[in-house]
Amino acid sequence: MNEAFALRPLGSSGLLVPPICLGTMTFGEQVDEAAAHEILDRALERGVNFIDTAEIYAVPTKAETCGATETIIGRWLAARPGVRERIVLATKVAGPSRGMPWVREGKGLTAADIRTSVEGSLRRLQTEVIDLYQIHWPERHVPAFGNLAYDPKKETSQTPMREQLEALAELVQAGKVRAVGVSNETPYGVHEFVRLADAHGLPRVATVQNAYCLLNRSFENGLDETCHRLGVSLLAYSPLAFGLLTGKYDVGGTTGPDAPKQGRIAEYESVRKQRWGRADALKAARRYNALALEHGMTPSQMALAYCYTNWRVASTIIGVTSLAQLDEDLDAWGTTLSSELLAAIDVIRWEMRDPAV
Questions:
Q1: How many degrees, rounded to 5, is the angle at CA 277 between CA 271 and CA 281?
Q2: Which of 57, 237, 249, 306 is catalytic?
Q3: Which of 93, 202, 209, 285 is in Cβ range 3.0-4.6 Å of 235 for a Cys bridge?
Q4: What pLDDT is attached to residue 1?
């Protein structure tokens, strides 16, 4: 039976989506194709018809699996006539290929780069149109993925933002993309993309896809006001902080002989080196997880409910590796957090200072 999800608009794009989105970056690495198709089927059966992917997935990114996730989704669509019309399909063009030469040559994100990438995504996804096409990370230097401060000395921008937006406009005009968005963006970036769109008659960004969870509430530091006033919708990713907010790392930690053998933090050194692998992030997660248990809910329930019920979030992107995880995440829908619990969450936040920003 489908969930009773009230659909929500994505900015001014005209797209309507459920409050939960299925993220797919595990498909092709942690999740094989058969299991991925089962997860996609179950998600759709339960009312989640919003699917997010990216040209560089699976994660962690490497040449062997670049594009694998889109290919898996494309085969799923091809085997199920009529399903494409029922879903909202989102994917992302990679930002500058820093450290990933298999994505593209060059240092910027040119109009030609964007055109080449969208054609590849359309081919792998076996579709004629992408509903939401997002810039995965900014072309310019920004403090992201665990970097805390902007440093103008690190600026390496090669492609003006207007050129990027004009390239996206061409895709919209050609009918290959319905709406555009950004990801891992800052208040300046969102403002500038909207300003350029309004000034030059180009498509407005409908969404920003940024990390948002109990361990990373940096979105609330100005970007929430930006999005609210400009009508840009937040797609919140990593609501469970790569598993830290499930409780599975509470006892054994993320490294060492007692760490869980499965999970992105435990398995992949590249993930441990980013924000989710910080010792302070695990320390804070343990406090949030204990608080959830004190209030009669699982850590996952509380963490997901924080996003599900938050006015800032249009849709929460969940990533799973099994049907059981999918059902658990969807079953958390409807969980409410009392004002007392929200106050206790804020106490931990201010004492721990957002360790996974």
A1: 140
A2: 57
A3: 209
A4: 38
